[in-house]
Amino acid sequence: MNTDELAGLYLLTPPKIELATFGDKLKSVLDTGAVDCLQLRLKDVSDDDIRKAIDTILPMCNDRDIPLILNDRPDIAKKSGCDGVHVGEEDASYDEARAIMGEEHIVGVSCYDSRHRAMILGDKGADYVAFGAFYPTETKEAKTSVTPEILEIWTTFTTVPCVAIGGITAENVAPIVLAGADFVAVTGGVWNHPDGPEAGAKAIKAAIAATEI
């Protein structure tokens, strides 16, 4: 995951998808050019369903040079050819994930509201740390609530990339970008956009760009 001056859009898939129709919808979103990284985040599905989803989505990402990160499952991520894995506090540990994925793959970690956890895992070699939730979200029940100040403090003391997550939309992304987020992770702000997910992705990317003017 390369960072540049502008924060990147880190798109998460909805936790439940109908693969037969989702593939075309995702392709349209990726074709906007607004997405910098994609996380496949499926909940309460079988391992086989996860593998089938990867088989559909990974070629799309590879064709567009977009990293595909799998949530929770380093074992499936490595065997399926994903670019990396994202783990939370209740998933595989960072050490387990890194041992499975190897140094050449991305391992990102959820750090919620804990700069202490972020510092420990950043020092261990995590490729990015994720803080949140910044805003109320309907995607999942947030364990913690944070303000943009955590990003300001983090970016002052370390160069480990940070991801902001939780209820982010085009309307509220500016303070997070200005605080120093390297990536903004979005689910509902894209998939639930009233004008469709393509419009949602473009709107967030435009809002990010507007903070740099």
TrEMBL record:
InterPro entries: Aldolase_TIM, ThiamineP_synth_sf, ThiamineP_synth_TenI, TMP_synthase. Binds 1 Mg(2+) ion per subunit. Its EC number is 2.5.1.3. 2-[(2R,5Z)-2-carboxy-4-methylthiazol-5(2H)-ylidene]ethyl phosphate binds at residues 137-139, 167. Transmembrane segments: none annotated. 4-amino-2-methyl-5-(diphosphooxymethyl)pyrimidine binds at residues 39-43, 71, 110, 140. GO terms for cellular component: cytoplasm. Keywords: Magnesium, Metal-binding, Thiamine biosynthesis, Transferase. It comes from the Bacteria. PANTHER family: THIAMINE-PHOSPHATE PYROPHOSPHORYLASE, THIAMINE-PHOSPHATE SYNTHASE. Belongs to the thiamine-phosphate synthase family. This is Thiamine-phosphate synthase. It comes from Thalassospira profundimaris. The lineage of its organism: Bacteria, Pseudomonadati, Pseudomonadota, Alphaproteobacteria, Rhodospirillales. The gene is thiE.
